[in-house]
Write a structure and sequence with these properties.
elongated, OB fold (Dihydrolipoamide Acetyltransferase, E2P), about 375 residues, alpha+beta, 8 helices, single chain, Rossmann fold, 2 domains, disordered C terminus, five-stranded antiparallel sheet, six-stranded mixed sheet
Length: about 375
């Protein structure tokens, strides 16, 4: 299977630039996810690869073939790009049976009837619909229609599969089963796949690597655990799951790779690990809720090699497999997670230095700290 490479791809609609020098490489056989909020440019990126959108500048290559090179006026027609695509709406034709839907790409390519029949049977078995070939779309569930669309995209053996939020019309339970099934199918086929979603859980569970976008700009590319545990900036930290974002000033270099930062609004300090900081600089710290530990007030020192803040547990919420704690420490709001119920009141908040990620870029001045900034609770 080929790599797919985008080099400085840009697209504008009037004065609005929806893609700004987007560049990445999805490796052969990789399930590569484009993740971001609605309107961030991920679907426009996918449609540029498919040939439904013409970029204003940039280059798109698939293996050794140039699909788009704006500077040299190259734009391969969609039908010659040899790509399979599943749309958010599935686009399954209601007047055709399941078998006819899957066979359609073969028919327009002039494949003989006997080979069409053989390939359709093979593909329906692959997506576990081999006994439903005579049914029509209105007789299928949403998950079954989604698999019909996938079978139709795969039946002519494309070299690249594009998936544009294919699970968005499914309920939560069915989405979970569908993404597990698709991940297994991807491993089985080894097909280079670009997957678009705004669902962070979906991206983390399915992807080999994730590209996070915001307002047409690539924010970070990395493995799911890297994106979650080592976000490149504040947007990534708050968009992927919950995150406490604190603002501080660098006050002391304790030793190589270890610094002390004074928190805005709390009058407290945290020791953090970082490559290189300058005394007096502003800094942004990201801390995941599950990294915080709570202890009865004054007992935080029992935890070795950790920062301890004194605060108040204001609220407790039961979430089934865990509890969510809402905390206040001076002028800072924090969110933590844990497995035990606790009574509201005074607590010690234990924050291991390794849990503190110093984000790139200076922190803008804000009048109030918050452990749950806008976007932190999405998904």
């Amino acid at each position: 299977m080929p790599d797919i490479v985008l080099d400085r791809v840009s697209k504008s609609y009037g004065a609005t630039e929806v893609l700004k020098d987007v560049g990445f490489t999805a490796a052969s056989g990789e399930l590569f996810t484009l993740l971001g909020p609605s309107g961030c440019g991920k679907t426009t990126t996918l449609q540029s690869i498919a040939g439904f959108v013409a970029p204003d500048r940039g280059v798109i290559r698939c293996g050794s073939d140039v699909l788009v090179d704006v500077a040299h006026k190259v734009s391969l027609p969609t039908e010659r790009r040899d790509l399979g695509m599943v749309f958010q709406s599935y686009a399954v034709w209601p007047h055709m049976s399941v078998g006819e839907n899957v066979a359609f790409p073969l028919r327009v390519r002039g494949i003989c009837r006997a080979e069409r029949k053989s390939r359709v049977e093979e593909m329906l078995a692959l997506v576990e619909l081999d006994d439903l070939g005579e049914r029509y779309p209105h007789e299928l569930s949403g998950g079954q229609r989604q698999r019909v669309a996938l079978a139709r995209a795969l039946v002519y053996s494309p070299r690249l599969l594009l998936l544009d939020e294919p699970f968005s019309n499914l309920d939560a339970k069915l989405r979970e089963r569908a993404r597990s099934w698709l991940r297994q199918l991807h491993h089985q086929l080894g097909l280079t796949t670009l997957f678009v979603t705004h669902d962070q859980d979906e991206a983390l569970a399915m992807s080999d690597r994730i590209l996070v976008m915001d307002r047409g700009v690539v924010q970070q590319v990395g493995a799911p655990e890297e994106i979650y545990r080592r976000p490149a900036n504040e947007f990534v930290a708050t968009f992927i799951g919950q995150c406490n974002v604190l603002r501080a000033m660098v006050t002391e270099r304790i030793e190589k790779g270890r610094y002390r930062l004074k928190l805005d609004g709390a009058g407290s300090a945290l020791d953090v690990h970082a490559d290189a900081l300058t005394i007096g600089d502003r800094a942004v710290i990201a801390i995941r809720p599950e990294s915080l530990r709570l202890a009865p007030r004054g007992r935080g020192e029992l935890v070795p090699a950790a920062n301890v803040l004194e605060g108040e547990l204001r609220n407790l919420a039961f979430l089934g497999d865990r509890y969510r704690y809402e905390l206040t420490c001076g002028g800072i709001d924090l969110v933590a997670q844990g497995g035990q119920a606790m009574q509201p009141g005074s607590v010690s908040i234990v924050i291991p230095p390794d849990a503190c990620v110093v984000l790139s870029g200076a922190a803008p001045e804000q009048p109030r700290q918050s452990g749950t900034p806008v976007g932190a609770l999405v998904g």
